[in-house]
């Protein structure tokens, strides 16, 4: 018994020592700058950082021997968790609990603070779940009010407008459709606008020939089983609803065609081909083609009665570089389109700063991490990158594809000139703004300064963590962000996975969730959630599990796709179910009926 008391007393001493460190951490010099409503949360954050800078695995194991709750769920109320354990250990060791400084956050207020901050930034969640659903609006949402109405009806609480695409006219129409749908359904839907930030992308590639390749569907023996369809229209005619659009030089020529009429031509190879008119409309006509053909500008089309026209301007075909492991790729500081056949291969870059900051030996990933290489040389106006990680049969690299340099510290602000130009529109129309590629507290302070100058202090602020620097500086970023009344964090898992490595992504996203819970800052779980379902109408098994795990965040973001409204409905069902079983890291232990005893067999 005495030995047990002595052992418990030693454990109590270790807990007292830990508490002393945590109390000291709460005196962080950054706390006075924090928004008054967040100061208790900031103190809790400082204490959590101090706690997790220690290795307390042995302490955890010793607590478990006594049958005590561990400190593993202490995020929202760090000091209160330590004090609760101290009180029990002190009682077991027969000593009184020493009186110490009060806890900034207790068990009840910690959870309440997080819920309140989530409601202020994201709005309330639908009945039956704690996690909100955010949807990225596609371009079609500007003109398709029905699509927006279906998204709101399915359970969307927030929409995201990506300022890297479209323009202010389209954004205004999207937002108007959202506000109208919310009013009609008696709901409030938050509008967030996502600033593009300094995304590094590949430069242009010289376009290929202006040609349209039209071919029928063939069986395994090469026989045409479904003819190709060609939409013939004037130079300013509408896009094809079905088939391939081929504009002709004379606006009225398609309108003179008759159903069943034969249109003859010789394609770019000199092969004789024949189109047969299937249907006609005021804007053009739809024709069938039984054989493969290549049409170029100037190709003569001859209808009945020698009614001739020529194919008008066609878009040039996009070209790509072909690369294999071991190839050298020159990344150049040149805005001109590159020759895709050049040796060694060359590609431009949209962000000249990388040529000043990159160093030999650092990694470069292309096309959102599909392949990568290592910088082998620094050359005037360029980097020599040796491809080290590519598919066995090679990879294709196009223009405008993402580039990631996870080992390079880029000396540039998170706000671009274009972002600053868009901020007045954002302040006027949005409920919250998302800052991309946050790397430091200085990035956050810069946006806060611009918003203050524009009178946007009521705007919510969402910080996208998508770089290793952003992750490593997250405590500093949060302390700076908490100077603002409404703030949240988005785990942007696309770029973050490339930067941190796919193997480490699961660990990184967990740590972000823990740190933000300690700060009582709501989290948005983003990137490829139910992506297959949104694109194809059927989910993969793995993404269903991912969607279930996303319920530990305060919000989940879905991307666009033709089945996005179905994805919202599906996610709503998953989140509603999981809300009965899990809250953050805590299992709720709802009664399970899956294995109810059916009684003896008859």
Protein architecture, described:
The chain is of the alpha/beta class. It has 17 helices and 29 strands. Strand 19 and strand 20 form a beta hairpin. The longest helix is centred in the first third of the chain and has 24 residues, at 2-25. The two termini are 55 Å apart.
SSE layout:
Layout: H1 2-25, H2 39-52, H3 57-65, H4 78-92, H5 107-122, E1 132-136, H6 145-154, E2 158-162, H7 168-185, E3 190-194, E4 212-214, E5 217-218, E6 224-226, E7 228-233, E8 244-247, E9 262-266, E10 272-281, E11 284-289, E12 293-295, E13 300-302, E14 308-310, E15 321-323, E16 328-332, E17 345-348, H8 354-357, E18 363-366, E19 371-379, E20 382-389, E21 395-397, E22 403-404, H9 417-429, E23 432-435, H10 441-453, E24 460-465, H11 468-472, H12 474-481, E25 487-492, H13 493-500, H14 502-518, E26 523-526, H15 531-536, H16 541-549, E27 555-558, H17 564-578, E28 582-583, E29 586-587
Parallel strand pairs: 1-2, 1-27, 2-3, 3-23, 7-8, 16-17, 23-24, 24-25, 25-26, 26-27
Antiparallel strand pairs: 4-12, 5-6, 7-11, 9-10, 10-11, 13-14, 15-21, 16-20, 18-19, 18-22, 19-20, 28-29
Helix pairs in contact: 1-2, 1-4, 2-14, 6-7, 6-17, 10-12, 13-14, 16-17
Question: Can you give keywords for this protein?
Answer:
single chain, 34% helix, 17 helices, 8-stranded parallel β-barrel, 602 residues, 29 strands
* Beta-strand content estimate: 15-25%
Uncertain stretches of 5 or more adjacent residues = none
Structural class: alpha/beta
Distance between the termini: 55 Å
Q: Determine the mean pLDDT.
A: 92
Helix content: 25-40%
Sheet with most strands = 8 strands, parallel, barrel
What is the overall shape? elongated
Rg over CA atoms: 30 Å
Task: State the total count of DSSP E strands.
Answer: 29
């Amino acid at each position: 018994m005495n030995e047990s008391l002595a052992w418990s007393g030693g454990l109590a001493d270790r807990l007292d020592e830990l508490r002393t460190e945590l109390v000291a951490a709460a005196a962080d010099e950054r706390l006075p700058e924090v928004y008054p409503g967040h100061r208790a949360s900031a103190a809790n954050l400082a204490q959590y950082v101090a706690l997790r800078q220690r290795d307390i695995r042995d302490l955890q194991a010793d607590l478990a021997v006594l049958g005590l709750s561990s400190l593993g769920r202490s995020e929202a109320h760090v000091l209160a968790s330590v004090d609760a354990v101290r009180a029990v250990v002190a009682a077991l060791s027969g000593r009184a609990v020493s009186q110490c400084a009060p806890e900034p956050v207790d068990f009840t207020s910690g959870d309440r603070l997080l819920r309140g901050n989530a409601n202020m930034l994201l709005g309330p969640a639908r009945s039956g779940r704690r996690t909100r659903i955010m949807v990225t609006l596609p371009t079609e949402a500007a003109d398709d009010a029905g699509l927006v109405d279906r998204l709101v009806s399915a359970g969307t609480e927030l929409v995201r407008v990506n300022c890297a695409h479209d323009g202010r006219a389209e954004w205004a129409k999207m937002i108007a459709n959202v506000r109208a749908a919310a009013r009609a359904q008696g709901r409030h839907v938050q509008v967030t606008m996502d600033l593009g930030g300094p995304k590094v992308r590949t430069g242009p590639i010289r376009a290929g020939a202006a040609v349209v390749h039209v071919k029928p569907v063939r069986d395994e023996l090469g026989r045409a089983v479904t003819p190709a369809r060609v939409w013939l229209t004037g130079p300013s005619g509408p896009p094809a609803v079905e088939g391939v659009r081929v504009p002709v030089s004379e606006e009225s020529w398609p309108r003179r065609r008759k159903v069943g009429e034969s249109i003859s031509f010789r394609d770019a190879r000199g092969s004789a081909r024949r189109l047969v008119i299937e249907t006609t409309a005021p804007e053009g006509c739809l024709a069938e083609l039984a054989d493969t053909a290549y049409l170029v500008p100037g190709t003569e089309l001859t209808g009945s009665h020698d009614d001739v026209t020529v194919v008008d301007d066609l878009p040039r075909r996009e070209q790509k570089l072909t690369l294999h492991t071991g190839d050298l790729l020159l990344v150049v500081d040149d805005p001109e389109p590159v020759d895709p056949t050049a040796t060694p291969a060359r590609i431009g870059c949209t962000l000249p700063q990388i040529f000043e900051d990159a160093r030999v030996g650092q990694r470069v990933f292309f096309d959102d991490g599909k392949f990568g290489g290592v910088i082998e040389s620094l050359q005037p106006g360029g980097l020599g990158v040796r491809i080290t990680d590519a598919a066995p049969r090679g990879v294709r690299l196009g223009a405008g594809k993402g580039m990631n340099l996870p080992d390079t510290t880029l000396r540039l602000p998170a706000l671009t000139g274009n972002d600053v130009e868009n901020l007045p529109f954002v302040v006027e129309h949005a409920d919250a703004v998302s800052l991309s590629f946050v790397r430091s507290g200085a990035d956050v302070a810069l946006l806060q300064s611009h918003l203050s100058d524009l009178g946007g202090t009521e705007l919510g602020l969402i910080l996208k963590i998508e770089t290793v620097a952003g992750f490593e500086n997250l405590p500093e970023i949060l302390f700076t962000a908490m100077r603002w009344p409404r703030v949240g964090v988005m785990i942007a898992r696309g770029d973050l996975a490339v930067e941190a490595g796919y193997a480490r992504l699961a660990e990184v996203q967990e740590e972000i969730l823990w740190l933000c819970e300690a700060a009582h800052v709501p989290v948005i779980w983003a990137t490829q959630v139910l992506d297959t379902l949104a694109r194809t109408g059927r989910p993969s098994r793995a993404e269903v599990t991912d969607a279930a795990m996303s319920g530990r965040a305060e919000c989940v973001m879905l991307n666009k796709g033709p089945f996005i409204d179905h994805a919202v409905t599906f996610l709503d069902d998953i989140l509603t179910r999981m809300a009965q079983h899990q809250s953050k890291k805590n299992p709720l232990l709802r009664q399970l009926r899956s294995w109810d005893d059916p009684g003896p067999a008859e």
